[in-house]
Amino acid sequence: MVLVVGIKRLLVFAVIWGATSVLCAQAPVSAQQNTTKKDTPSDPLETFLQQYIKHAGLPGGVVGIGYGTGEVRYAASGYASVNPDTGMRADQQFYIGSLSKMMTAVVTLQLASEKRIDLSDPIGKWLPEEFKDRVANADKATIRDLLRNSSGIPDYLDGEFFFQLVGRDPQHGWRNVELLPLIADREAYFEPGTSYAASNSNFILLGVMIEAVEGELVEAVFNRRVFEPAQMVNTSFGRYPRPDLLARGFDDANGDGQLEDVTDYDVGDHLADGGIISTAHDMVKFARALFVNGVLLGPNAIKRATTDTAFTGEGSYGYGLMIGSSDWGPVWGHDGIYFGYSAEFSWFPDQDTVVVFLSNGRALNEVPSITSMLMTGLFGDPE
């Protein structure tokens, strides 16, 4: 997600690629429309997406736009698999990577509202006894610090050790608690609450806490607390065998500049920092359930999650949310990367509009975020 967007940059790309300026004139389409790859798409949103995917060097992707009226639009382009080639569909599933952190934050805030936990609790309170003294800052970093990435707890993904483990056992089925040895016995980045550093360990530890409080695995907890209330019927944690709707994921696994199918590598199927698979349709539902309908959190929790922030240098980070600004007003959300997948989720509170982009690859070429390039078409020129 782009935290600060300049109008000149957007207009340059709009001229180069076209299509964005006519998005507002196109009527929203049904959420059930099954969009497939076409050589000459008539929908300007699909034309734009096709061009974006080509310039980015992505295998394929789906964009979803949910408007304040409740209407939605989707477009799909590229390929969901190769050998045999299968065109991308709008109902395809993808790993959403760090967009999962928003849902982990939602569950954490629900537990706090129920007085099951206190956001001022040190995370060490909820760790297994053998790790209470081995995780840096665990005795003083609060749950609030973890939600804001201000705990100073080191990221278990720093270095290559976790990926070496994945390479040796690519279908292990990692659990949150299994990663505690990778977080333990390392020096803290800083004193809790004094700075900001994105650390996946924060959300792994929140996953450990959630499972300890609820006495269930995260799959069951998130189903009951997030997916079912928001009617996210095609959302779950990753699993084997891979679901039929899951687009195959492609990445440069060998560093040779060639994309390989990496779908069957488990780099976090059951992990609270990024193991969720979803669709653009379901992520639009998530936005409405979280920010509009009050299904997941009440207004006080949303206010706290978006105002109790840590400064990141380019914007702020709230409770599992990037909090930024654009020429069109505030923008909240997250971006995400998973092995073979990438994702964007941007909620514009002033316009009650969400933009979701899910892809089965990571851009090989440098391009702006797709959300930043759609803003002029969606909202017109900024005032």
Please tell me about this protein's structure.
This protein is an alpha+beta fold. Helix content is 29%, strand content 17%. The protein has helices at 7-17, 44-56, 100-113, 143-147, 161-168, 180-183, 200-214, 218-227, 280-291, 299-307, 370-379, and strands at 60-66, 72-81, 86-87, 94-95, 236-237, 250-251, 260-261, 276-278, 310-311, 316-317, 322-326, 329-338, 341-348, 353-359. The strands form 3 sheets. Strands 3-2-1-14-13-12-11-10-9 form a 9-stranded antiparallel β-sheet. Strands 4-8-5 form a 3-stranded antiparallel β-sheet. Strands 6-7 form a two-stranded antiparallel sheet. α3 crosses α7. The protein is globular, with a radius of gyration of 20 Å. The chain starts with 6 loop residues before the first helix and ends with a helix.
Q: How many strand elements?
A: 14
* Percent strand: 15-25%
Order of helices and strands: HHEEEEHHHHHHEEEEHHEEEEEEH
Shape: globular
Give the integer mean of the pLDDT values: 90
Unreliable stretches? 1-38
Helix-and-strand structural type: alpha+beta
Q: Report the radius of gyration as a whole number of Å.
A: 20 Å
Main sheet strand line-up: 3-2-1-14-13-12-11-10-9
Number of helices: 11
Helix fraction by DSSP (H/I, runs of at least 4):
25-40%
Describe the sheet with the most strands: 9 strands, antiparallel
Intertermini distance: 22 Å
